[in-house]
Amino acid sequence: MSTEDIPPAVWRSAEVRDALAVRDIGTVYRVLREHGVSQSRIAQLTGQAQSEVSDVLNGRAVRSYELLARIATGLGIPRGWMGMAGEPDPAAEGTDPAVEEDEKAKRRRFLSYAGSLVLGAEVDVSGSADLFAAELRRFGELPPTPPGRVGSSDVAALDVLMGSLRQIDQRYGGVGQYGTVAAAARRAERMLEASMSEAVRSDLLGALCKLHATAGWTAVENGLLASGNAHYGRALDFGRDGADPLAIARTLYAAGRAELDFGDPNSALKLFQLGSIRAEASPLVSSVLQLNSAWAAAHGERRGSVRRMLDQGRALHATAEIEADYPMFRWFGEADVLGLTGSVQLVVGEHESAALHLSRAVAARAPGEVRSAVFELASLAEAKFALGDHASAVRHGRRAVLLAGGVRSARLRGRLAGLRRRCAELVGSRHAWRDCAEELALGIDGVIAPRPVPR
């Protein structure tokens, strides 16, 4: 069936390509509608009922591999753009050693730039916008002219935007936000061309640092690591000249978490430690970075330092006056301390202590903190399996899977991987809990990536 009525610009759109990478079909359909493609035409091309297309546009996820394949065929989308078998992703080429080496070089370059900036060495920034922000040029058309004058209320509006994004991210994950945030960051940069007082300019630079760090976080939530690092590099550019030194610490925290969740824990530890240097004035931010350092050390080559970092992070948080500390980290409360403590203990094999701290973390979670609750429930179930308490493990695991159905984050795969391995061990045995473990493994597959459970 011909797709000539679909404008080629749709498939050149970064928002659409990023949505396809994480199989966010609702965003694809929305962009098609914005380009004049009707719901009935989408239904005709994809073999869906028009009511099904409407459901997808209203937020229903498409998880069926068969339907995804039909959508790809009907709309003329290369399957590789959605990470599906049968056709390589022309943009990824992940198995090419040269490409892999290039990505490693980019990460080393980012780490070197961050270290030079924090430690006060001379940094050549003449080409930094080109160096780190090539990805950013793909997003949206800029306004034809910058605003005439920027005041403190304009900068405050950016802070309100970031607060709203934080709440959505915390509850549902960051998938679906990235194109919006990245475009907002690029448009906000045009504000620098307007007239403003020096005080407002300094505040604006700090806000741009935070906005690009937020864009980096949402990119990583979508599994777009290269785009995330591009934003983190741009955030450091603005943070260097801004009035908010803790904004750099926040950027390094976010970049470190990307490495911890998807990359190299030793690089993550370096980024957390660089962030700690910039966070000395804030007990709260320092505690976040120390606790994450302990987690990275547990995964990496510094296990001997884990206990010291963990104790230091907990002590710093106990002394922090959260409501008077850095606003961008006031979300980090007692539940987060308990959750990170349990996560570190799980990695180093202290399963009883891990289960205690993780169960307390889950109990302390507010109703809106869904993503964190999912991660902690999965880790708690993993600890319970290790302790031989299979009934509790299955109960907590089922709850994690149930809640995970409403979370849209590329981090789900890694954070549920340990629990799935525990399930797979039982499925491959004659254990009495084998059937429950298989059911749980299939539930995990349903929220991360469909694949068969070996029997």
UniProtKB/TrEMBL annotation:
Q: Which InterPro entries match?
A: Cro/C1-type_HTH (IPR001387), Lambda_DNA-bd_dom_sf (IPR010982), TPR-like_helical_dom_sf (IPR011990)
User: Where in the numbering of this chain does the HTH cro/C1-type domain appear?
Assistant: 34-82
At the top level, the lineage of the source is: Bacteria
Q: Which Gene3D superfamilies match?
A: lambda repressor-like DNA-binding domains, Tetratricopeptide repeat domain
This chain belongs to which protein, by name? Helix-turn-helix transcriptional regulator
The upper taxonomy is: Bacteria, Bacillati, Actinomycetota, Actinomycetes, Pseudonocardiales
